[in-house]
Specification:
alpha/beta; 8 helices
């Protein structure tokens, strides 16, 4: 496994043979004399590591002297692989490989939309491994855990169901891109195997959820439902009355920065 320890861009290979794909990473090394958790950006469906929130998170890490890890899932941004091959399991495998390559001692996970689902699954997988990596906190921005079964499948039209059955995918207009969103049968089936809203989620760390109440993609009630599955954690929910799904306005970005900074301060107090 390749290791990453210097500020700059890097790539790692995940998978073997015909399943191999190059994962692009932007890494910022820590500069603070006191060890702070590395900030890990987990992007959303069809988002990449150069988006507004990811860049702002990196700038925050620079100011704080903390490490920052950004990367693109396969089929996204600068990474290789086909988008249509993507599943939660596949993107989770890549996330774990990136963290293994960076080898931080502790992290704060910042997951946006689908990245919130990846963050929760990542915590579950890291707990199984008992590697000693500390999860110092998690910030979930418009989190979309189980979005395939909770938000997409119940709303499928007959035409979309037919397309899934006959073509293996269906397309949906995207308000964020001229290209349509593509949802494959493999993604939907794999999503059921990665459900987290099926029992108590014990992250073992503070969780801060930022959710827009005017979000057309992930209703704020989904964030309320997620909280029901986090009874053992210290959870803060910030509802932003006029916030949309992206939460990329200056005032939204300030809330993200404040949430991350507060987690770092709390971690330092705990020693």
């Amino acid at each position: 496994m390749s290791t990453i320890n210097a500020t700059g861009t890097a790539t790692i290979t995940v998978g073997t043979g015909s399943d191999a794909r190059e994962i692009a990473i932007i890494y910022r090394a820590a500069t603070a004399t006191t060890e702070k958790p590395a900030l890990v950006w987990l992007g959303g469906y069809r988002s990449d590591m150069t988006g507004t929130k990811a860049v702002v998170l990196d700038a925050l890490a620079e100011r704080l002297g903390a490490a920052c890890i950004r990367f693109d899932y396969s089929g996204h941004g600068a990474s290789g692989g086909e988008f249509r091959d993507g599943t939660i399991s596949r993107w989770l495998e890549e996330t774990i490989a990136v963290i293994d390559a960076a080898a931080p001692k502790s992290v704060i996970l910042v997951g946006s939309s689908m990245g919130g689902w990846i963050a929760l699954r990542l915590i579950q997988e890291l707990k199984k491994r008992a590697t000693g990596l500390k999860i110092a906190g998690t910030v979930l921005i418009a989190p979309a855990p189980d979005f395939t079964s909770e938000l997409i499948e119940p709303e499928l039209t007959d035409k979309e169901r037919q397309s899934l059955a006959e073509r293996g995918y269906f397309e949906e207009h995207s308000q964020y891109s001229p290209e349509p969103n593509i949802y494959t049968r493999a993604l939907m089936e794999d999503g059921r195997n990665n459900r987290v809203l099926s029992g108590i989620i014990d992250t073992g760390c503070p969780v801060h959820i930022l959710q827009g109440m005017a979000d057309p993609d992930v209703p704020y009630r989904h964030a309320l439902k997620l909280m029901e599955f986090l009874p053992a954690d210290d959870v803060t929910l910030t509802l932003i009355r006029d916030g949309d799904h992206r939460l990329s306005r200056p005032q939204d970005l300030q809330k993200m920065e404040a949430a991350v900074s507060a987690l770092i301060i709390d971690d330092e107090k705990l020693g």
